[in-house]
Task: structure prediction
Amino acid sequence: MTAFLLAAVTLAASGAGAAGAAEQPRQDDHAMGSTLRDNESEGQDLATIQDASPLAVPSGVRGMDVSSHQGVVDWSKAAANGAKFAYVKASEGTAYRNPYFAGQYAGAASAGMLHGAYHFALPNASSGAAQANYFLQSGAAWTPDGKTLPSLLDLEYSPYGDGACYGMTSGQMISWISDFSTTILARTGRLPAIYTTTDWWNRCTGKANGFGNHPLHIASWASTPGALPAGWKNYTLWQHAESGAFPGDQNVFRGSLTELTAFAKNPGPIFSDIAGGQFTTEVNWLGSRGISTGWTEANGARTYRPLAPVARDAMAAFMYRLAGSPAFSAPAKSPFADVATDNPFYKQITWLASKGISTGWTEANGTKTYRPLEPVARDAMAAFMYRMAGSPAYSPPAKSPFADVATNNPFYKQITWLAGSGISTGWTEANGTKTYRPLEPVARDAMAAFMSRYNAKFGSK
Result:
């Protein structure tokens, strides 16, 4: 509340106030940066810029962030004064929605600004997934239209007197942030940006250095952004003052307007262990479609483990998601002796079986098994994809294109169909022969390539 009153006085003096009076803010309505003044280290320069002179504004593309505290905003005036983008508060925890959100979010766009939505996190109130889903109910999910900024997670000091870090350990905080992030990624295809201060981040996450793939929106009301939180080499956005030429807080994007538009459109890297490899594009595509969100390591890093083999249970999940996660009620009794109904992939495995894509094995004692933890071999992968495509009419060549796949191979038709479709063309060996390596396990990076090419050829969701 202190930050709000200070901002209101300064805004009135600068003529940058809201076009209409806002309702009295609720106790559970906290604006981005509202906890900084009461919590940042003594002696830190929390400067409030009171004019719009070039010397007072950092270089970069200028923007703003607003909440219910600004009420009805004169977006045309803000745009005329130079604002090119705006973040609008959508929600807080799972019990508060900004009543001005729809008008503010649409108003920014109608004034020609890029716009995005942010969520004020209450990590000790409910899970990260619950708050991410609540936030997305606002209807402000990121889309690659070049006009919408990524979802923004506001992480700052607790406003409720339960300690700066909400009474949570650094490990608990890392897990909560990862839970929120994974949900946003799975539902929107893009990691959220993170708004925070260096002091809060280093104190409350224990200097977790694994979130560098999330764009950083640094809060530093000073002449420079200062030292950045652990894990980031550069910031993307900088909230440099709580008031100024525009309603709400003052921000800059580090780059040009063209670069800001590109940032809005392109999701950027998703996994920390994928950078410039053979299948980087395909793996990022897989992540952006929510087909695989990878693993969260102890330091918060999101990894894909590209060279790890794909197990049959994970394969079922990949193919189910590639198909668009269709409505399906899993049977009450498992059709497989080795897949319990509480298996995390039970629904996907039984969906795969119901479609005839994989029906498993009949063992010597007559039981049906799926062997969920076995790696998927490349010959079986060809069969899976052929069946997923609807087992199309296809006449395999009389002569095998692969030196290691005989024409009487039980999967010969499916392997040559896969090659003929351009989904997998195998290897050219040192002696010039072409091989498919049918019994090799499918690595996770190759799986991303298979699915990306399948999608381009046959479509998915």
User: Anything to note?
Assistant: The chain is about 30% helix and 10% strand.
